[in-house]
Amino acid sequence: MTDHRQQPPVKPFGDFSIDIPRPTILPNGVELYVAGGGDQEVNRIDVIHRGGVFEEMPVRLVAQAAASQLSQGTSTLSSQDIAECFDYNGAWAGAHSTHNHTVVSLNSLNRCFGKTLPVLRDMVMAPAYPEREFQVYRNRCLSAYRTAREQVKYLAGVEMNRLFFGDDYPMSAAITDDDVNALDTEKLHRFHHKYYHAANRTVILSGGITDREISMVAEAFGSDPDTRQADDLSAPGQQNGGPRHFSLVEKPDAVQSAIQMQLPAVPRSHPDYFNLRILVTALGGYFGSRLMSNIREEKGYTYGIGSALIGARHGGYIIISTECDCAYTMPLIDEVKHEMDRLRQEPVTAHELEMVKSSMLSDLVKNLDTPFAIASNISSVILYGIYPEYFNEQIRAIRAATPEALLDVARRYLLDDRLYTVVAGRTS
Questions:
Q1: Residues of the chain with pLDDT under 50
Q2: Which residues, other chains included, contact 100 with Cβ-Cβ below 8 Å and sequence gap of 6+?
Q3: How far is the C-alpha of 322 from the C-alpha of 331, rounded, in Å?
Q4: How many independent structural domains does the chain possess?
Q5: Residue 399 CB: number of other CB atoms within 10 A?
Q6: Model-level pTM?
Q7: Per the domain annotation, does 259 fall within a domain?
């Protein structure tokens, strides 16, 4: 019997690695990645196409609209046909757009895959974008964005994009009713035709799969001929470094203020990236971090605050975000700067560094839990331009990190004069 009164022993992580499988090239040039394993006869297929938010300008929202409306009807199936097929066979499908890609996913039982996969293929290849369903979608969007424009978190994010990236950044202005009303089914068809083709496509199949499922996917997504070239990915995300470093979005009736702070950083390929990631984790990347210990646990200014190093496809930046009672807005910002200053002035202790390392390695181990988790790693390689050995280099960097190395990157990157701060709400 386990004695629950005794704390279990803490053991260091053993050796592990995260390996990205090599893709199979299908007859039409599509790359097919397979992440097999698991005890359950279930699978997930992710169909990824180049073309996302950055490629949709000047028509905002068209990438997400084109993705979300795939399930609303095809040249041969109505929205009801699609829904009934997935419901009856215990399947679930979804779609979303990232900065440069669109991902369409289907979770299915292996024994039902022969019925659900053709429906997914029809959705991806031949969406009808019926007018009646689109009008319902557009009305929902109008309602959702009107609600969002009343939320301080949304307002802070939009203003930070403008302040940090510049006015020309695709997400530097709040979505307006005019943006939503400018959408129509013809624009969805044009976006689909331009980007949803074989040269832009990558497929990831994961789960307890067999050769049968692999063969079915190869036939479904590797047989359509297409002589087009892969589309170039847009890159508008470079930090412009404008002269203003603070902005207040006034909302007099706000109960809470949303605070967002950002610092320019480096891309994943930079030699400083891994040590900077460890440093940002120590600052606010896990529950025992300095920001949480000080601002939540000691001061009680907020329920939660966090920091992260965002390694985007076209660069990198550090983000710190939270919401708090308006009365604590400026004291909270001061405490964030105080914790940044502490990291610049003195090295983290050996004990704190071990806690950070354990937290980060625990998160990485989760990437090996299931075939679906491995598939998510493969998606990261595609969506964010990560090189396959990135994950294992990160493991080695975490193990090798020293207090002195973190002090060095803190003094070069956690700089007050490079910090951008946005408050949406009130400052008192």
A1: none
A2: 50, 51, 52, 53, 54, 55, 233, 234, 313, 383
A3: 13
A4: 2
A5: 12
A6: 0.92
A7: yes
